[in-house]
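Quick one, tokens below:
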């Protein structure tokens, strides 16, 4: 597994977005562009993310109403497929698929629940747990995003909205299971 490399890349990209720094221009490379290589290797250039939540209704309210995602589909994994696939060892479950948009390249945020919460769940800061800690969502109007969050009683964390060097703003919130959600975008009117 390449977890340290992937985590380093994710953290670097987050820091670039947060500080407004520009990545250095890549050196000319006689090899095919990475996107061309990815298309030969992968059937999709997006990664769908599966998230186990403790309360499906609370998570749906947060992601659909407070964040503004769209529910696009749902599906069920039965006991047999859960066992044969190695996903659950035989526990059936339902998945609610959410997206930021309806395009083919929109990332799927797949929520599922087993009705329980992990015992060690403290997540005060991103360094408190291993694994996926946060997602970043780029918005067109931060003022509208903040108003939607406040209307759903979602507290803003830290001293946010925080202005960034490039004129955009940064807002940090948590979902019902303490996963951090970063919003980045212009303040709007």
């Amino acid at each position: 597994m390449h977890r340290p490399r992937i985590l380093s890349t994710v953290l670097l990209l987050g820091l670039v977005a947060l500080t407004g720094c520009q990545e250095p221009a890549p050196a000319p490379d006689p090899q095919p562009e990475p996107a061309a290589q990815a298309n030969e290797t992968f059937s999709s250039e997006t990664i769908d993310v599966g998230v186990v939540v403790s309360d499906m209704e609370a998570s749906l309210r947060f992601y659909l109403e407070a964040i503004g995602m769209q529910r696009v589909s749902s599906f069920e994994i039965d006991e047999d497929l859960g066992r044969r696939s190695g996903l659950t060892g035989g526990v059936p479950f339902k998945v609610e698929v959410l997206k930021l948009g309806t395009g083919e390249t929109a990332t799927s945020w797949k929520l599922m629940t087993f009705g329980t919460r992990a015992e060690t769940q403290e997540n005060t800061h991103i360094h408190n747990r291993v694994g996926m800690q946060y997602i970043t969502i780029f918005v067109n109007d931060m003022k509208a995003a903040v108003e939607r969050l406040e209307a759903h009683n979602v507290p803003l964390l830290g001293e946010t909205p925080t202005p960034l060097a490039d004129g955009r703003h940064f807002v940090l919130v948590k979902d019902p299971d303490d996963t951090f959600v970063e919003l980045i975008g212009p303040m709007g009117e």
